[in-house]
Design brief:
Length: 95
């Protein structure tokens, strides 16, 4: 079993609330086995892939295929984040 600290933003919170998940700010989440973000998003949180544009692992944007480890801090960011924040957060590279 691994334990992660989970944060969700914007309308992702509303989707989680509809599923009865009310802990989404620095929430401790226990997961049976190691998994990647894709598995977490689709099979544990029951969100659609398109609901999450970027994933943060310990403060850095990573690919959704990244495997989670015990003690990781994660955040899910929905589509629609304004352009300047996309650059600052590392979701988009400067051209």
């Amino acid at each position: 079993m691994i334990t992660i600290t989970f944060n969700a933003f914007s309308f992702i919170r509303e989707k989680l609330k509809k599923q009865g998940i009310t802990e989404y700010v620095n929430a401790k989440v226990d997961i049976k086995d190691e998994c990647d973000f894709n598995h977490l998003i689709e099979n544990i949180l029951h969100l659609q892939e398109g609901d999450v544009e970027a994933v943060f692992l310990n403060g850095k944007v990573v690919d959704k295929s990244t495997v989670l480890k015990d003690g990781d801090r994660i955040a899910l960011v929905p589509p629609g984040t304004p352009g300047s924040y996309r650059l600052q957060l590392g979701m988009k590279k400067r051209e």
